[in-house]
Write a structure and sequence with these properties.
about 210 residues, mainly alpha, two-stranded antiparallel ribbon, 4 helices, 6 strands
């Protein structure tokens, strides 16, 4: 236990006390600056002697200023410094087929869109290869039916996730109709879907946390 001065009346009180027994002022125990060793208020963001941050801080990815370690949004520039975790392959399929099967509103991050596209590619490629191998057998018809049913079952979620991906880049879902323009339309959609998420909320919803 140590004795410190009350900031109001100067009375010596224990550093364990919450209030000064003489005047009732809340006791603020100073802390040592990690750089110069000067005693500063624990509520201070920087040492008045050397300017070093007195609390755990991190650098804003956008403006470079030091901000509190637990801060999500930079108080200087407003950038969202929250680390975004990518969806896993399994999570992306679950979102597209179960949670947002026919959801045409909101936004989809790149990992959600591309993992679901990869899922479609794997299934269709596997079925196509099997159909080539078994084209002269009775299994060919069975595989053709399975592939047709898979196409029908995933048609709506494929449209939905593509529209949400366009929303995520700040574009209207109506841009999906560019797909009907041969070659050029497909290239445009590919470029837009490759783009990363816009970091801020837009008119289609908040930025996805993935």
């Amino acid at each position: 236990m140590a004795l410190i001065n009350c900031t109001n009346c100067g009375q010596m009180v224990s550093d364990k006390a919450t209030k000064c027994p003489n005047c009732g002022t809340p006791i603020v125990v100073p802390v040592k600056c990690k750089v110069c060793g000067e005693l500063v208020s624990p509520n201070a963001r920087a040492c008045p002697n050397c300017g070093a941050p007195t609390k755990d801080t991190k650098k804003c990815k956008e403006c470079g200023n030091q901000i509190p370690e637990n801060a999500v949004t930079c108080p200087c520039c407003g950038y969202n410094n929250q680390e975004q975790q990518k969806l896993t392959f399994k999570e992306a399929i679950s979102v597209c087929l179960l949670k947002k099967y026919a959801t045409f509103t909101g936004r989809a991050c790149p990992s959600e869109y591309w993992f679901f596209a990869l899922f479609n590619l794997i299934i269709n490629a596997t079925l196509s290869i099997l159909m080539i191998i078994l084209q002269w057998t009775s299994m060919y018809t069975v595989l053709l039916v399975i592939q047709t049913l898979f196409f029908i079952a995933t048609l709506v979620p494929n449209f939905a996730v593509c529209i949400r991906r366009l929303h995520d880049t700040g574009r209207s879902g109506w841009n999906l109709f560019w797909a009907f323009l041969p070659i050029v339309g497909a290239i445009l959609l590919l470029i837009w879907c490759i783009q990363g998420s816009s970091r801020d909320d837009n008119k289609y919803g908040p930025a996805p946390k993935c």
